[in-house]
Write a structure and sequence with these properties.
- It is a single chain.
- This protein is mostly helical.
- It starts with 8 loop residues before the first helix and ends with a helix.
- Helix 1 packs antiparallel against helix 3, helix 3 runs parallel beside helix 6 and helix 4 packs across helix 5.
């Protein structure tokens, strides 16, 4: 399991916005339209689960809301999960996706560390390719090896 704090609030908001096809500005805005309010509830619930941030920090990131507002949003999300099958399914899907993203980020971070240590060990960091993952370009062979080692270490 990935520990809370491995995902940023901004990442949660961006992910929820992408998956629900709303703009982040709409989610954190002041609109009281039902579809946006429910999306905001889901985003607050996910932010609390995945970021390890305080209610005050989440509130600030959600457009300067008070911690009590965030508490209300999280409570409403939990209530909706109990009575609304679609809302429960949506939050479960987003929760799994964020956990997977957090795991990939943690593995890539560990792979970066392995690459840095290999570079230090060999004494020639300029000869080793950078370990960053790029969805367009893929990964270098060294990066793939480091990522595999990191994933096996985390398992």
């Amino acid at each position: 399991m990935i520990s809370p704090g491995s995902v940023s609030i901004a990442s949660v908001l961006e992910h929820v916005a992408f998956e629900t096809e709303f703009a982040v500005s709409d989610i954190i805005g002041r609109s009281r339209k039902l579809h946006l309010v429910r999306t905001r509830y889901a985003a607050a619930w996910l932010a609390r689960r995945h970021t390890g941030k305080t209610l005050t920090q989440i509130g600030r990131a959600f457009g300067g809301r008070d911690h009590s507002t965030v508490t209300h949003e999280i409570t409403r999300a939990e209530q909706l999960r109990g009575v609304d099958d679609y809302f429960c399914w949506l939050t479960d899907q987003l929760d799994e996706q964020l956990a997977r993203v957090a795991g990939e980020d943690a593995a890539v971070e560990l792979a970066d560390s392995v690459i840095r240590h290999l570079a230090d060990w060999r004494g020639r960091p300029e000869n080793l390719p950078h370990a960053r993952y790029s969805r367009r370009q893929g990964m270098t062979l060294w990066s793939q090896l480091a990522l595999r080692v990191a994933q096996e270490t985390m398992a």
